[in-house]
Amino acid sequence: xxxxxxxxxxxxxxxxxxxxxxxxxxxxxxxxxxYGDFSKAMDLxxxxxxxxxxxxxxxxxxxxxxxxxxxxxxxxxxxxxxAEQYEQALPxxxxxxxxxxxxxxxxxxxxxxxxxCQAGLLQRKQAIESFREFIKADVDAPERLVVGALxxxxxxxxxxxxxxxxxxxxxxxx
Length: 174
Known about the structure:
By secondary structure, this protein is mostly helical. 72% of the residues lie in helices and 0% in strands. The chain contains ten helices and no strands. It has helices spanning 3-18, 26-34, 36-46, 50-60, 66-82, 86-93, 107-120, 124-137, 143-158, 164-173. Helix 5 packs parallel to helix 7 and helix 6 (86-93) packs antiparallel against helix 7 (107-120). It is globular and about 55 Å long.
């Protein structure tokens, strides 16, 4: 890290301390300032070039910087969820709701995405628990995620094993 980068990071942190409304993207913004590849991956995701972003993020999750690795893991998992690659996304999300939750501002969203993956993999009981945990734990979650979690909870609770909806969902899965 260069002296200029350290100063830029220090200014950003001081600004976030003075203005709580600026804390939202503090970690990710700082990581983008420090790591060009992470910044490039964020740009690729913003421009819907998910395949390229997935490849780059796949390398960044191996970083020795625990904050970089955790946040790269979140964005990689989110890209995989968007591509309906639930089996690949789920193991990326588990540490973000556990031992690495203090290294990212997205632990709550990771909990939501874990529920999406579990529902997509027909792990209904686990998905219900994940969505309930998300609603209870992330009181500051974006409204769209809370509404989505409530909607998915309702859907999952209405599906009983061997009902017509259950059979249809299992056929779609296979």
